Amino acid sequence: MGFTAKAQVYNAAIQETVLGVGDKALTLGGARTQPLCSFDETWKNAPAVGVEVSDIPFETEGFPVLAEYYAGCESFGDRVKRASEMEGAKFVCLHFEGADPGGENKSVEDIVALAKEAAAATDLPLVITGCKNVEKDQAIFTAVSDALSDRNPLFMSAREEDYKTIGAACAMANGHKVGAESAVDINLAKQLNVLMTQLGVAPTSIVMNLGSAAAGYGFEYVASTMDRVKAAALEQNDTMLQMPVITPVALETWSVKESIMSQAEMPEWGDKEERAVDMEVVTASACLTSGSDAVILRHPTSVKTIAAMLAALA
Amino acid sequence: MALKGLDIFKLSPKTNCKECGCPTCMAFSMKVAQGALSLDKCPHMSAEALSKLSAATEPPMKTISVGEHKLGGETVMLRHEKTLVNRNLYGIFLCANMDDAEIDKRIAESMAVDYERIGERMFVEVIYVNAPAEQSPERCAALAKKAAETGRDLVIEAADADRAKAALEASGDAAKVLAGANAANWEAFNALAAGKLVLGVKGADLSEIHDTVEKLEGAGNKNLILDVTGASIKEAFSNAMQVRRAALKGGDRTFGYPSIVNTARLARGDSHMQAALASMFTLRYGSIVVLDSMSYAEALPLYGLRQNIFTDPQKPMKVEPGVYPLNGADENSICCVTVDFALTYFVVSGELERSGVPINMFITDAGGYSVLTSWAAGKFSAGTIEKFFKDFDIDAKYKNKVLILPGKVAVLKGELEARLPNWRIVVGTTEAIQLVRFLREFK
Amino acid sequence: MGLFDVVYHGSDEMYFKAEAAVKETIEKIGENAPVSFGNTAYYLACIKAYTALEVTNMAQLRDALVPIRAMMTRNNRTADIFHSGIATAMAAEVIEACKYAVNPKPYGEADNPNDNKYHGHMTDAEVRELGVPLVTRDIPGFVVLIDEAPTDEQAVALIKGYQSRGIFVFLLGGIIDQAVRKGVKMGFPVRVVPVGPDIIAVSHIISLVVRAAFIFGNIQPGDYVNMNTYTMDRIFAFVNAFTPVSDITVACGAGAIAMGFPVITNETKDMNWRVPKSLIINEDVDQWIDCSLEARGIKIKVTEMDIPIACSSAFEGEIIRKGDMQLEADGSRKDCLELVRTKDVHEIEDHKITLVGKDIDEFGVGEKICMATIVEVGGVKMQPDFEPVMERKIHSFINCLEGIMHTGQRDLIRIRVSKAAFEAGFRMKHFGELLYAKIKNEYDAVVDKCQVTIYTEPEKVHELRVEANKIYDARDARVSKLTDESVDVFYTCILCQSFSPSHVCIITPERLGLCGAVSWMDAKATNQLDPNGPCQIVPKERVIDENIGIWEDVNEAVNKYSHGALEQVSLYSIMMDPMTSCGCFECICGIEPFSNGVVIVNREHTGLTPLGMSFSELASQTGGGVQTPGFMGHGRHFIPSKKFMKAEGGVQRIVWMPKALKDSVAERLNATAKELYGIDSFVDMIADETLTPEGDPEALVEFLTEKGHPALGLEPMM
Fold first, then answer.
1. Hey, which bits of B16-135 come out as E strands?
2. pLDDT tens-digit profile of C371-398?
3. What is the DSSP string of A119-168?
4. Which one of B28, B314, B337 makes the best mutation probe of the C interface by having the most chain C beta carbons within 10 Å?
5. Can you tell me the distance from the alpha carbon of C121 to that of C205, in angstroms, rounded to the nearest whole number?
6. Which secondary-structure segment (H or E) carries C178?
7. What ipTM, to 2 d.p.?
8. pLDDT score of C500 more than 90
9. What is the bridge-based pairing of β-strands C543-545 and C550-551?
10. CATH class of the domain defined by C313-480
11. Residues of chain A with C-beta less than 8 angstroms from the C-beta of B232
12. pLDDT value at position B1?
């Protein structure tokens, strides 16, 4: 009797949000299908892969490929430029780890200078990630937003504690994009979007960071939260959950045991770089399958692999 | 739609004869509704009841046994809707076209992966043996024999009945699935599988697979698995999605079978791409997911992911209660205590390890709930911690009498001080992420 | 002269000054000379805001006078005053623009305007710097103080009073000299800005406001209505103007009111026009801060507590032993109590802490004292129903103090103050400081003002205790009288969705959350305090079947908050679309077919029920937000409710409960059975694990038959 597939296209769509400016501007969202289901309806915008660059050079011990990729880079700007040249990279994520008051405690001025240096080094859209210290992040996001006012960057992330300042200073004052970060809970995610909107941030300026975890580290919560958010957005037409989802995968996967234990410590586990890449690749793929519209990765092999997978699925 | 327990109970004999092993007919009915028992366990169901119930209790997706593993049997598309029942299996791909060195390398690498994680053995459950037309039946048989020696379950895919027969014979009991049945050879393959093997069905497209399954079911075989691999990554993903949707949402029982996805064929030689695809098919409807080989690099994230996804949302993953010494801790190191919720364990132990401070982590039996939830339910209290100290003889074994308590249960401090008078109870941080600094600054 | 005339006159006066200034300036520098305040992308922002004109030179400035004049309408309606008021501010901007056209630094030579006596124009960067905390409410609002206060001291008291509450202060005119005389530090960084020598400089403040609206509100130039709506809703500004108030100032004040900024003044002359909450005459300048904040609806967050000991959840579990104790208030031995009361806002003096009786240092060491803590709160949205919710929190507030232990509530509290806390300087008033700060912070959505009185005078405490017990009794009576019929709304609770994604509790007065922890009152308070939180209002207007407990509104809510997983719920039935369970239910009830009744088992009971299933086996059937007819999770307190499976005949269906559970609900269950069916000692008819063997339905039926249990005679449940 044969089999005829029925396309599952919803009447609702994931909201479209534009990052960056000019030719390289990137639109996230737009899908009316379940994640990655281009066979139901051709993608309006493909999910995107971005590259993480930190102001503190990455640990390269045991990562010869990563080290080689950035070999010869002398400055943050050099590394940003190199990162933006990765095969498949659609945006660059500037990770200002060094701003952490518990770490290098770089000043706001220093961070602004680095952000400008990075902006000069690439014309890809920029995503700005802070140091997870609420007060410092507010200060650097506000200042960087003013400094990069013509680049339409995305600031990650606004949380329950600081969404007001980041929403006002970055999204409302400069029209930039803000990542609303919640901890793998659909209701908290929605509540934050509602609060941001009430503050006066346009829904199209919001991208959701629903929280992430490396594969094996409670990823079921990530998957189920994304599954539910996408279902609410598409089946229930819940406009407060239709924002595109961005997942900073690298931030999670590069700090788990599988990626940091040296081969000397765990000989049977084999090559450390292979482990780190596979942890990143597996987690990224799982995030995209669950509904991320963009993932942030670190390793050139991961970026290339995931970009190729998305290209094959298009 | 699955039946509710009460509907089954109404048709049950209501005699509480206990012959099914349940104390009451109600308990039996509830278990059947849950899928934990099958209807035929009750010897006293009337014919009328059976005919009414069997159609309704027949699951939309069959549960197929591959060796000791169960595949399929899912009732929902996504785990949050209820739960996913049977986790997928991972397999490696061996083909008679490969040279022996490659075959040996794959076997050696993959067999080395064998470890335990949260009470689950992590290993390659399946070896996928391909017997192509280019190779002689003898060579195919030799490969099957070699694969069988690993003791793992075999999927044998053969180009034709001769090669299938040769490989099956050579592999003995190890063969669990005969793959490669298609529109042309299904009768011969069906005869070979003959009730003892799961039959793997393939085809040029879903329509062809659908037709072949109908024919096989017509011939009385409902012990099938569908190879949805297809010609491209996009087609494979589309096939896996369509088959599962048709079975669970579309009421199409013909597609109510588990699936095989062979990433080795979708991304030849690219191990990272295969890992990415294996991840995707773990989430979306691959039942046996095959890769070239399984190194630790691939295994660690994939098995972890699978363990996460195939947990019941109602029943959190638990770790074994006990003492976990970290960063080379011994009896003179400080101690901390938390619950046996796996996520708590991973997050907290990760941060403790990052701190580099030697510390003994005490995991108490808290029913697998998070700190606040188990505290609220009375499963994590001064009493349960005291019991843990007794069960594991902590007071005698550990000399550094500092115990760090999760900040969220600071309220337990006083009572703990009373119950553990030798110990200095210190209230720790409320979030794991603050632990590194807390420990480094702790004197 | 009436207020209309004063405004008209004032706006005329400003306009003529503007006209003259433009004329004079053009004569001096020509009509092609550029006009700009510098460091702004918004031209002359007031003019741009209300006319959409982008003025860049003197000729355009002259042309702008035409629409300004046109706004000064004279039809003696309120709108005329508002329009004229805003036009007055625009005319003021024209005058200021002329000053800057002639000299880009009219208010001083210093490069940093904060170093000049008058600040004048504010840059876009300054607008942003102030705008972000205004949007986030980190700065709760700003005040414009105009002209000279009655005394220098009052001027300083007002400035510092606002400053200490986080309010940004702008000064205009004579008060600046008063501040200078008193040595008040001024400038943007300290949030006190002397803008200019006279009312004309007010245009710089209005310019800041409209630019904030452009930047943060995306308001379009020329959009008069939306501009004023935005400033009213989002910019929490207000004006304090000292007598004598000039006509020009009155006209500007009208503009402020049009933008939603109330004006508080001690001028009484000609103020015969009343706009409630907008124009407030208050001759007592010392009351202006409270009066102004209330008029603009500004609440101040309390961030610092003046307490000599630490306060953190790390001390929550601390136990103070007898030997370490400075003194103790023990409700079981002495009169002690805690009470939260609602009072009219005007009867409360915010942050007043009073001690009646002896302080800690006046008692002997180890003494047992009498102690009453009365917290009085008031607010527009405060409701007496929140009193017990706040009162219950007193325990955890006080318990977090280092060296203080607190247990119990109402008149059964016990408080111990340690010697260490006493030596650190802890006294009775610090309880007040703590409770004030915690309540103002945690309940800021409903509490506008709060005062605390602590009594240690034994006779007074005794009197209060008698009085308080009447209040406690009345509260309990109210809770027990609350029925599903007597309220207009139910609430959702989705606190558990993190692990039971599709579960939604519907909380009604007679059916608390199945975890047993969230009552209807709690849900109501949670909703008021956190309107976007887990407890949402469910109206109950569209009834489908009140007996079974089906409302269209409830179904809609369940559908919405389960994200589509559930479509229907019957609140009073366990057979037909019963309410779902998350997994944290205290009890499960399940149908027992042989007796035609239900068994109830609580989480603590580990044995088998007569169904042949244990609690955990039943739990696996009922959890996860799935409807399983015949089985339902619920709270312990729901058992004696008249709504307990009302659709199936109510509590008379209960045939079995574990003994411990049975004992804990016996009294109320007997009362319910008596009231509903006239059955005496109903609980004695219910079997338990001590009366019939485990997992044995036949023995159960035998027992029930012997007792004549009513369930046996009821209609079959299925």
1. 63-66, 69-72, 89-95, 114-117, 120-123, 126-131
2. 999 999 999 888 888 898 889 889 989 9
3. HHH--S-EEEE--S-HHHHHHHHHHHHHHTTTS--EEEEE-TTTHHHHII
4. B314
5. 8
6. helix C175-181
7. 0.97
8. no
9. antiparallel
10. alpha beta
11. 312
12. 37
Domain residue ranges in chain C: 140-201+219-296, 313-480, 489-713
| Residue B81 forms contact with C (CB below 8 Å) | yes
Distance between CA C497 and CA C584 in Å, rounded? 11
- Torsional sign, CA C115, C116, C119, C123: negative
Residue B423 forms contact with C (CB below 8 Å): no
CATH number belonging to domain C489-713: 3.40.1470.10
Cα–Cα separations (whole angstroms), residue C229 to A196, C213, C219, C226, C259: 19, 10, 10, 5, 7
Q: pLDDT tens, A9-64?
A: 999 999 999 999 999 999 999 999 999 999 999 999 999 999 999 999 998 999 99
The arrangement of secondary structure in B5-57, i.e. its CATH architecture, is: Orthogonal Bundle (1.10)
Nearest to A270 among B250, B279, B296 (CB): B296
* pLDDT tens digits, one per residue of C186-207: 998 889 999 999 999 999 999 9
Domain C140-201+219-296 has CATH 3.40.50.2030: yes
Instruction: Please state, for a pLDDT cut of 90, what percent of chain B lies above it.
Output: 67
User: Residue B414 and residue C315: Cβ atoms within 8 Å?
Assistant: no
Chain A to chain B Cβ contacts (< 8 Å): 172
Q: What is the mean pLDDT of chain C?
A: 91
Note the pLDDT of residue B147.
Answer: 96
A7 Cβ under 8 Å from any chain B Cβ = no
For residues B190 and B161, give the distance between their C-alpha atoms in angstroms, rounded to a whole number.
10
- Condensed to tens digits (0 to 9), the pLDDT of residues B127-136 reads 999 999 999 9
Residue C466: what pLDDT? 95
- Range A17-313: architecture per CATH: Alpha-Beta Barrel (3.20)
Taking the CA atoms of chain B, what radius of gyration do you get in angstroms? 26
Helix (H) or strand (E) holding C171: strand C168-172
Tell me the pTM.
0.83
At residue B3 the predicted structure's pLDDT band, cuts being 50, 70 and 90, is low
B298 touches chain A (CB under 8 A): yes
Per-domain residue ranges of chain B: 5-57, 63-309, 322-441
CA nearest neighbour of B236 among B264, B214, B217, B197: B264
Subunits with 3+ C-beta pairs closer than 8 A to A: B, C
Query: Which residues does C contribute to its contact with A (CB < 8 Å)?
Result: 128, 131-133, 135-138, 215-218, 234, 494, 497-498, 501, 532-534, 560, 563-564
Query: What are the tokens at C452?
Result: 């605390």
**Which fold, B63-309?**
TIM Barrel (3.20.20)
**Considering Cα of B47, then B49, then B55, then B61, what sign does the dihedral take?**
negative
> How is B69-81 classified by DSSP, letter by letter?
EEEE----SSGGG
Both tokens of residue C123?
A: 């840059």
Nearest to C501 among A202, A224, A235 (CB): A224
Q: Report the length, in residues, of chain C.
A: 718
| Separation between Cα atoms, residue C44 and residue C207, nearest integer Å | 8
Is A264 near chain B, with CB under 8 Å?
no
Which positions ≥6 away from C227 have C-beta within 8 Å?
Answer: C49, C50, C210, C213, C219, C259
C547 and B CB contact within 8 Å: no
Residues 319-348 of B with CB under 8 A from A: 342-343, 346-347
Q: Are β-strands C325-330 and C367-369 bridged in parallel, bridged antiparallel, or unpaired?
A: parallel
Sign of CA dihedral C685, C691, C697, C701: negative
Between CA B325 and CA B417, with CA B408 as vertex, the angle to 5 degrees is 70
- Looking at the domain that runs over B322-441, which CATH code has it been given? 3.40.50.11600
Q: Do A187 and C494 touch (CB under 8 A)?
A: yes
Q: What is chain C's alpha carbon radius of gyration, rounded to the nearest angstrom?
A: 34
